[in-house]
Design goal:
CATH topology of the largest domain: Phosphoenolpyruvate Carboxykinase, domain 3
Radius of gyration: 19 Å
CATH architecture of the largest domain: Alpha-Beta Complex
Oligomer: single chain
Number of helices: 10
Helix content: 25-40%
Strand content: 25-35%
Length: 294
C-alpha cells in the first residue's frame, strides 16, 4: 500500500510518499495537525520525498527502506525498522542540499523573549539532550538540527521538528518527561539507537516567529566537570561556524558576510558542563539576560 501525506513544517511544505505504515504513524504522532491529507492541501509544495520498499527480489529476502528526493538517493537502504529515522535524516539532507534563501548552520537553536542562542556541536557533545532539557524548561525550540539564518542579518527562522535522541540519552530524557511523545525506536543505526521526541506545543504554535541571535555556544558534556566557560574570540567563532555551515561555500560572498554579521552581533562561548541547571542559569543570566551586541 502507498501512503501519501503533506507535512506543513514552516517554512517548508513536504509531500511525503511511503510504503511503510510505521513512517506515517510516527509522522502523524510527532507532527500532529501539521500532517494533512494531500487532497486537503492546495498550496505550494517545496519538496517531494519518499521512503519506499527496496526493489526486486531483495524485498522478499530482506525488505529495506529507501529514501529518495527527485529521483536522487543520498543514503544507502536501511533496515525497514529505521524507516522513520531515515525520513527525518532525509528531510535534513533535502533542506541542507537545496536551500539557498538562508544560511544553514548545523546547530540547535533555542530562544527566550525573542533572543536566540545557537548550539553548534559535533555528535557526542550532548547537544540533543541539552536541547530536550531547555525546550521543556522555559526555552522555545526553533530547531534541533539546523539554524536558518536570513543572509547578512542575525535573524533566525524556526524549523520546528522532533529532537533526535541517541543511545543513553533516550532513557534519560524519557525518565525526565514520561508524558511526552516519542517515536518508535530505530535500533542499530549508524548513530546507534535513535528515538525522536516531539517538539513542545509552544514551539509549534510559534513556528513562524523569528528570533534574533544574541549568543553562540559550543557545548560539550563532561561528567567530570561541573561547569567551565571560555570566551571565544570572533575569529575562532567564525571558523567554527564555517565548519558547521552546510551551504556556506554555495552562498559565496553572501555566506562570508552572513557569518561575519553573526559573530559581530553575538557573544560566543565554549562551555563544558555536567550540570544542565548551571548551564541554563548561565544562558539566561549572561547570554540573553543582557544583549551582548558589539
Amino acid at each position: 500500500m502507498v501512503y501519501k501525506r503533506i507535512l506543513l513544517c514552516s517554512p517548508f511544505a513536504f509531500h511525503i510518499t511511503s510504503h511503510h505504515k510505521s513512517v506515517i504513524d510516527n509522522l502523524e504522532n510527532l507532527y500532529g495537525k501539521r500532517v494533512v491529507q494531500p487532497e486537503n492541501h492546495d498550496g505550494f509544495i517545496d519538496y517531494r520525498v519518499s521512503v519506499t520498499h527496496s526493489g526486486g527480489i531483495r524485498r522478499l529476502i530482506n525488505d529495506q527502506a529507501r529514501f529518495q528526493c527527485d529521483k536522487m538517493e543520498p543514503f544507502k537502504p536501511l533496515n525497514q525498522s529505521q524507516a522513520f529515522a531515515m525520513l527525518e535524516w532525509g528531510l535534513n539532507w533535502v533542506v541542507a542540499a537545496h536551500e539557498v534563501s538562508h544560511l544553514i548552520i548545523h546547530s540547535a537553536v533555542l530562544a527566550k523573549d525573542g533572543r536566540a542562542v545557537l548550539f553548534p556541536a559535533p555528535p557526542g557533545s550532548g547537544k540533543s539532550t541539552l536541547t530536550a532539557y531547555l525546550s521543556r524548561n522555559g526555552w522555545r525550540l526553533l530547531s534541533d538540527e539546523m539554524a536558518l539564518i536570513t543572509p547578512q542579518t542575525s535573524t533566525v527562522t524556526p524549523f520546528v521538528r522532533p529532537i533526535c535522541l541517541k543511545n543513553d540519552s533516550i532513557n534519560l530524557v524519557k525518565s525526565w518527561y514520561p508524558n511526552d511523545v516519542f517515536s518508535t525506536i530505530a535500533k542499530d543505526t549508524h548513530k546507534g539507537d535513535v528515538v525522536h521526541m516531539a517538539p513542545g506545543d509552544i514551539a509549534v504554535a510559534k513556528e513562524a516567529e523569528q528570533a534574533k541571535v544574541v549568543g553562540i555556544v559550543f557545548p560539550k558534556y563532561n561528567k567530570d566537570i561541573f561547569f567551565d566557560v571560555y570566551d571565544m574570540d570572533q575569529a575562532t567563532a567564525y571558523t567554527a561556524l564555517a565548519e558547521n555551515a552546510f551551504n556556506y561555500t554555495v552562498l559565496q560572498e553572501q555566506g562570508v558576510k552572513s557569518l561575519i554579521k553573526l559573530v559581530e552581533h553575538a557573544s560566543s562561548f565554549e562551555v563544558e558542563y555536567s550540570s544542565l541547571e548551571e548551564l541554563d542559569s548561565f544562558l539566561t543570566e549572561e547570554v540573553i539576560g543582557t544583549e551582548h551586541v558589539k
